[in-house]
């Protein structure tokens, strides 16, 4: 019999799912002092591990478990088994442990496999595609998603006489896994996952932990996957545990039977859970950094700038050697220099293509190939360090490039501040606007407490060609957790151009994606550039039975808009692959004209009517 070669794997952090039952009889019989001590020590234990004070890297989170199988689940991610062993024993030393008993546990290690990329057999660092490399590192060094609900279960691949996964050729297994992953990517932005391997570590082969704000999204995902051959023929499942996230400070509420999480100001998880540093080299970014209320106290450096920071004087002198006089570029706040041993013609061609993307950003000053005394280098100047750090990753991937250097320059330009970044058309960033909308009870682009960033471009290309090319690009975008969706929309009433909508969880990711989207065929304009002010009502997911009513009502509202001062144009755009998914784009003379409409009784009545016909709450995003 032919010996099957196992696909390569790369491991990251070890995982412990620690499931506990509460001894309610003992809790009721305990004195008030005993209870207080148990809760105090329990809070201290949970807070210390959520903040990862016991290790330089990892994450922890606490959940209540719904149903009879357990009452609590604590998830730990740590670099070593020793770390997990210590965390487990540390809990047993608390007074809280006296009122719990182990319901179950599961030990595993986060992993990615060769099904994801065949070059993994030689290790992640040998994968040439930097985007794929970073994506894999995010998978094995994950942040615990800050979602309300969790679902954990172990699983195996079948080894039955009829359906034996391990007897299939690699190509067939890889194809099945790819199709399985396609289903998961349809739930990007709704369900996040941590996949961990447990062969030789526990009773099953993998542990799967899913996170979502809406638990039915987890149900729908798993239900759909049950019909995929990878599951229907080859998967076996262990026990499922479902629960809800709670901060350490809410442990007393858990034992008191009260609602968690509570709304107190001290959640015990710190305030950095949403302040994650994004590696902007690729649209998905890479979460880095310090203690986090979202469950990660630290991660390895999976991205970051690919240059060494040096002093400004030294870099200025080196730039001068290559014919770059900084006095000619007073707006430059940060400079990069990457030397290359590649053929100058090849390097120049690659830089030309890269510069086309860079020029989409107002922070870009100069990127060029320069030569001096037989040496070739790429010089790149930017208005601020943050933008330069983004560019650094791309420059490091150029032919023949080694390590680079960079430095910040003094400049009087306001654009040089780190807080300045490229403008993403389609992004609701104006706090004043947001405040006005909140006063009007209008949803201003913050689903589940997180901003959504939208990019909209218009194209006159053939819609079929546009869909095909966006589909290819979307496959790359789907590698990143920050990608919500990208789709082609057509004018419901037969307009001459299509809209490409791309939605991301972070502004940095949307900015980076914009460079790629702008290269799609037939692009004629970017939303928000055609008027003094643009608005976009997004995520109009219409209930199928009310679709015709929605289109008819849009026509009535359009008639009202035509009579309003400052209104230029409004179009109803429909997703070409889902007729019930729509958005409304409007162009106005200025901001105040648009606000007059949002203050109007007609708009209020439309919003109220929409509650009955829409499957989800819409988001309003300002484009300019």
Automatic annotation (TrEMBL):
GO MF, one annotated term:
heme binding
| InterPro entries listed in its UniProt record | ABM_dom, ChdC/CLD, Dimeric_a/b-barrel
Tell me where in this chain the ABM domain is found: 534-622
Q: Where is the composition biased (Acidic residues)?
A: 412-421
* TM ranges: none
Provide the residue span(s) of the region labelled Disordered. Answer: 255-310, 405-433
Record key words, sorted = Heme, Iron, Metal-binding
Keyword Cell inner membrane among record annotations: no
Which Pfam family, an example, fits this chain? Chlor_dismutase
**Where is the sequence biased in composition, kind Gly residues?**
286-301
Compositional bias (Basic and acidic residues) at which positions?
273-285, 422-433
Q: What is this protein called?
A: Heme-binding protein
- Write down the species: Natronomonas aquatica
Q: From which lineage does this chain's organism come?
A: Archaea, Methanobacteriati, Methanobacteriota, Stenosarchaea group, Halobacteria
């Amino acid at each position: 019999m032919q010996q099957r070669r196992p696909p390569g794997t790369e491991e990251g952090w070890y995982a412990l799912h620690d499931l506990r039952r509460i001894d309610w009889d003992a809790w009721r019989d305990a004195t008030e002092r005993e209870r207080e001590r148990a809760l105090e020590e329990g809070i201290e234990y949970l807070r210390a591990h959520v903040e990862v004070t016991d290790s330089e890297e990892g994450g922890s989170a606490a959940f209540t478990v719904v149903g009879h199988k357990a009452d609590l689940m604590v998830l730990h991610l740590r670099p070593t088994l020793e770390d997990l062993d210590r965390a487990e024993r540390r809990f047993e030393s608390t007074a809280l442990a006296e009122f719990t008993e182990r319901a179950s546990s599961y030990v595993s290690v986060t992993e990615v496999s060769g099904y994801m990329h065949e070059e993994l057999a030689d290790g992640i660092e040998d994968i040439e595609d930097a985007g794929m490399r970073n994506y894999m590192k995010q998978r094995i060094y994950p942040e615990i998603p800050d979602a309300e609900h969790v679902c954990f279960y172990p699983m195996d691949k079948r080894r039955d006489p009829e359906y034996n996964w391990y007897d299939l050729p690699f190509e067939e297994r890889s194809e099945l896994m790819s199709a399985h992953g396609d289903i998961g990517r349809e739930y990007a932005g709704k369900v996040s996952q941590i996949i961990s391997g447990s062969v030789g570590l526990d009773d099953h082969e993998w542990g799967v932990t899913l996170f979502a704000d809406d638990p039915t999204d987890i149900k729908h995902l798993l239900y759909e996957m049950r019909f995929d051959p990878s599951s229907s023929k080859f998967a076996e499942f262990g026990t499922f545990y479902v629960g809800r996230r709670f901060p350490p400070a809410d442990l007393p509420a858990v034992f008191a039977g009260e609602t968690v999480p509570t709304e107190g100001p001290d959640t015990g998880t710190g305030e950095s859970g949403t302040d994650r540093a994004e590696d902007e080299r690729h649209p998905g970014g890479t979460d880095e950094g310090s203690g986090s209320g979202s469950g990660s106290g630290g991660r390895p450096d999976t991205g970051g700038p690919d240059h060494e920071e040096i002093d400004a004087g030294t870099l200025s002198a080196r730039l001068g050697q290559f014919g770059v006089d900084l006095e000619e570029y007073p707006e430059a706040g940060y400079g990069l220099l990457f030397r290359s041993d590649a053929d100058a013609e090849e390097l120049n061609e690659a830089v030309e293509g890269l510069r086309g993307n860079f020029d989409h950003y107002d922070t870009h000053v100069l990127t060029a190939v320069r030569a001096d005394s037989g040496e070739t280098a790429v010089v790149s100047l930017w208005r601020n360090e943050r933008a330069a750090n983004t560019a650094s990753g791309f420059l490091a991937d150029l032919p023949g490039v080694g390590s680079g250097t960079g430095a910040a320059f003094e400049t009087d330009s306001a654009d040089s501040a780190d807080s300045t970044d490229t403008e993403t058309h389609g992004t609701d960033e104006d706090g004043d606007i947001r405040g006005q909308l909140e006063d009007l009870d209008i949803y201003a682009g913050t689903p589940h407490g997180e901003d959504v960033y939208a990019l909209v471009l218009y194209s006159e290309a053939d819609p079929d060609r546009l869909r095909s090319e966006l589909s290819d690009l979307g496959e790359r975008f789907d590698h990143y957790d920050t990608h919500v969706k990208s789709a082609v929309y057509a004018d419901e009433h037969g307009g001459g151009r299509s809209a490409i909508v791309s939605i991301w969880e972070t502004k940095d990711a949307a900015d980076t994606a914009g460079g790629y989207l702008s290269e799609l065929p037939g692009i004629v304009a970017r939303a928000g550039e055609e008027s003094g002010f643009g608005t976009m009502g997004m995520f109009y997911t219409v209930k199928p039975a009310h679709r015709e009513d929605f289109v008819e009502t849009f026509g009535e509202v359009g008639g009202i808009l035509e009579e309003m001062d400052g209104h230029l144009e409004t179009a109803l755009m429909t997703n070409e692959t889902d007729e019930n998914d729509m958005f409304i784009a409007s162009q106005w003379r200025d901001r105040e004209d648009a606000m007059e409409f949002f203050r109007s009784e007609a708009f209020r009545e439309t919003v109220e009517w929409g509650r009955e016909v829409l499957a989800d709450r819409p988001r309003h995003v300002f484009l300019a």
